[in-house]
Amino acid sequence: MDRQWRMMVGVVSLLLSMVVVFVGGAFAQEAKLAKYNLTWYPTGTTGTTYGVAVAASTLINKYSPLPGLPKLQISVVPGKGTVEHTRQLVEGQIDIGLTGPDIAAEAYDGKGAWAKFGTKGKELRALVPATAMGTQIYSFWDGPVKTFWDIKGKRVADQSKAMSMQRLNAAVWEAAGWEPGKDFKVTHYQAMEAMYEALKDGHADVIIHTQGFPSVGPQELFTIKHCRLVGLPDEVIKKALMDKRYWYKTTIPTNQYPKQDYPVSTIGVVLFWGTTTRLPDDVAYEICKIMHQNYKEGVGMYQPYGQFQDLFVDFIVPFHPGAEKYWKEVGLLKK
User: What is the DSSP letter of 194?
Assistant: First the structure.
């Protein structure tokens, strides 16, 4: 009887161990097959960041999963601007979105309009540098605006105030001692395409917008008609940068646009792809690794994609732990 009992116990133990192995293997297999469908929000479809996001998502969708990492599927969705993206990140509506150090820092610290979100802003994290933005002013070559000071009294097409980049534009006017609506007529446009149409239709004399360079919209405009890129005077730049730790003086090089055979001085800021602590560490790590390891292929798809390697600056908000791990491994962030 005891022998039969011992045999029965042995058989049951064997069966239980097989079940454990099977179930454990099933869970391991399920972990290997983990998949994340992520949303990636650039601004509009005509700016530099849209092309960068499309190139990055194409690479990630192509090369994921890397060994030992989850399968990623990225969907690029044209967004409404860095302020809106930051809000969407804080509220958990999107996974990755274009943002800037000034807006992100305010949300992270819960200042001003961001106070209503409580500590949610503390979840914001930097993932990858996106692009260097520059304030660009342009008009038709034979139009009434040939220098910066010609803008006074003219009709200006400006970006929407909902876009954080418009802050740089506003700083330019303030530095020049001008009040929009008083010293010149200004119309704010939500869509950049509408700004280009306003200039082409004669409803605006000059456009001001802060975005990457070169950008698709201006390239098309400069192709259709000879346009002039207007630089900022040094005294305006100096005043605009006072107490602005995220902005800097920069130069838009020659040949960014058709027939633009001269450099222009302006002010700039580095934007970044933001995310939150809700994004798993291994997902953030894999995104950064694929973008970096396939750098040349990304540049081949869209030249401004390659900017990110030279844009590791202080974004005020911390890097995501998974991103920080990878960027330190390859030496782009100091350990």
Answer: H
